Amino acid sequence: xxxxxxxxxxxxxxxxxxxxxxxxxxxxxxxxxxxxxxxxxxxxxxxxxxxxxxxxxxxxxxxxxxxxxxxxxxxxxxxxxxxxxxxxxxxxxxxxxxxxxxxxxxxxxxxxxxxxxxxxxxxxxxxxxxxxxxxxxxxxxxxxxxxxxxxxxxxxxxxxxxxxxxxxxxxxxxxxxxxxxxxxxxxxxxxxxxxxxxxxxxxxxxxxxxxxxxxxxxxxxxxxxxxxxxxxxxxxxxxxxxxxxxxxxxxxxxxxxxxxxxxxxxxxxxxxxxxxxxxxxxxxxxxxxxxxxxxxxxxxxxxxxxxxxxxxxxxxxxxxxxxxxxxxxxxxxxxxxxxxxxxxxxxxxxxxxxxxxxxxxxxxxxxxxxxxxxxxxxxxxxxxxxxxxxxxxxxxxxxxxxxxxxxxxxxxxxxxxxxxxxxxxxxxxxxxxxxxxxxx
Length: 440
Prior knowledge:
carbohydrate metabolism; cellulose degradation; TIM Barrel; Glyco_hydro_1_AS
């Protein structure tokens, strides 16, 4: 399959990480606490009882990690900034030592000719803002815009892209809907209101960043999936319509059409968000790119217990069905529904139980097969006219996997957390070879 997968010469090949999952240095050089610092130190919140205090120690090992990227021959690195590292309280004074870390990282990337793709928010809200209501407080959206403007002012001419948010669906639904993620709230009405404030903050940030005149392309990263009925029953079809409307269209429609999907609004009923006059004018800013994170489809069964997805290709270590054709179906569906800008696949990858290094090697053939199949699905979507400009493999490093702690490994580089030794897995060597083949 690999030999027939030829992408355009200008196609971007990258790897991705996020700040809280790899940086560590939780209190170093004036960094303030984030909601994930608080959440991971709360007993019972993280499955293995771990926290992100050290993680991959990337804060101190960034030069080594950029060297690893260069050895992989990638031309792009997608990473997030820790808001509390550069503005400890989420408002007020900037922390120059925090900004200096990202300056050093960018300098290292420049040396290796690796383009920087920055995400402003990957779930680690400064705890100071959470103490004032977090994303449920509309004011947080305005603080976020001020943070975005400062990052764009400082770095907007040094980076290729800036994304406002990574997966706001997760912030709203897992952080506020079922308490699985920080800040650990389980309240559907709050969840829906938070989703609106996240979208508002995106629009405000887009306006603020454009006002400072950076040259970076600006956009947002959304986790998306198709929603397939488990059977042809009306109940399953209705559930699939609801799932797609409340998850994919809920974030896409305001950005591209200036309103929420009617089906989802009706479904939310009394939990529908409070929207102020002019909000959709703010949210509906032109974006230069759309980041799409794809891992699985939604398999919708109204039965009790729900019918399970067939998983003909198996499941990942997260229990997620491996369903590469869903990526093709999703992208083609989005192209039919929206006037899309260029797309980057900003995350795609799998958790695999790669806990041991055996004679200097980590054999992860399942991950290679997963990535190869998804790249073939991506190529199919591009053949149907979807404008995709790049692919970022999740993740560069094994890391702190949120409420799963260190039990799940998504990296193509194995990390021994006791020693911080990095070992390329077979998938890393395969990815390098694949990239080299694309450039021949």
